[in-house]
Amino acid sequence: MEAVEAVHACGGAARAARLVRLTPRRALVAAVAAGELLRPVAGLYCVPGCPPDVLAAAAARGVRSCQSAAVALGLDVLHVEATPHVTCPPGSRGTWRGSVVHRRRVADLDGCTDVLTTVLDCLRCLPRREALVPADSALRTGRLTVEDLHLAATRMNRRDPRRALLRMADPRSGSALETVARVDLLEAGLRVRTQQGIEPAGRVDLVVEDRLVVEVDGYAFHASARQRSEDLRRDAELHRLGLLVLRFSFEQVVHRREWWLGVVHDVLGPR
After folding, report:
1. DSSP secondary structure letters along 193-204
2. What pTM value is reported for the model?
3. Which of 46, 61, 70, 243 could staple 94 via S-S, CB 3.0–4.6 A?
4. Are 220 and 270 in contact (CB under 8 A)?
5. Residue range(s) of every CATH 3.40.960.10 domain in the chain
6. What is the CATH number of domain 172-268?
7. pLDDT in tens, the chain (271 residues)
């Protein structure tokens, strides 16, 4: 196998000890000299443009984990964090500059932790209000089931804060932003139903206390004039049914939490 092909076969970055099983060491040296491969440090080879998390995992002799694994596995996250997260075997000493290294034994799923481990790690590593985003994404896409998460919760220590978060997971969540809004509302003590069909308006994001519809509008899906017209039609139909309607943007939900929750409480009035 040619040197560049061997590195690609290892995911884009690998240690020499692994690569020499696939290609001669002299081929690796020649590929670096030709600019076809890079050698960031002695004994580590990667293709040009190798993603930082792939490089970090190879350098530390581990696998991508937490949010790094979630992105690699195609799970939704609210923000793509620049710092790679890597998990290495217990007792290992592998590190890589600018990365977070966890140490425990995990399965290797094509250079990543498996989906369930990734979801549970995100519950530990990410800020609480966005920690459920990968979990909801895994449920929505059928990568995990509610039963998978319930079983995982039963295996945790009773004091593990992730148990309470897992109970909030919802396969009906339509987006990362919707998950964050739902968690905020639930933790504010409000009753919330997700992705409810209300004709003739259609499906709405969140119904709060059975009388307020909260729509969270990501720019990508609500930027066109046609979509804006449809949003206005839906709002009018909901008002005609006697429901209150509030719309919040990504920036408001993510960065102005106290303000938008305050608006919801004021609109609902005394319970």
Report:
1. EEEEEETTTEEE
2. 0.89
3. 61
4. no
5. 172-268
6. 3.40.960.10
7. 899 999 999 999 999 999 999 999 999 999 999 999 999 999 999 999 999 999 999 999 999 999 999 999 999 999 998 899 999 999 888 889 999 999 999 888 889 999 999 999 999 999 999 999 999 999 999 999 999 999 999 999 999 999 999 999 999 999 999 999 999 999 999 999 999 999 999 999 999 999 999 999 865 555 678 888 998 999 999 999 999 999 999 999 999 999 999 999 999 987 6
Whose CA is closest to 79, among 137, 142, 126? 126
Instruction: Tell me which long-range contacts 255-263 makes (C-beta under 8 A, separation of at least 24).
Output: 257/129, 257/184, 260/184, 261/184, 261/185, 261/188
One-letter amino acid identity for 121? D
The owner of tokens 């309470």 is 164
Of 140, 165, 141, 142, whose CA–CA distance to 152 is shortest? 165
**Residue 163, phi then psi, degrees to nearest 5:** -60, -45
* Amino acid present at 252: Q
User: The tokens 């409480």 sit on which residue?
Assistant: 265
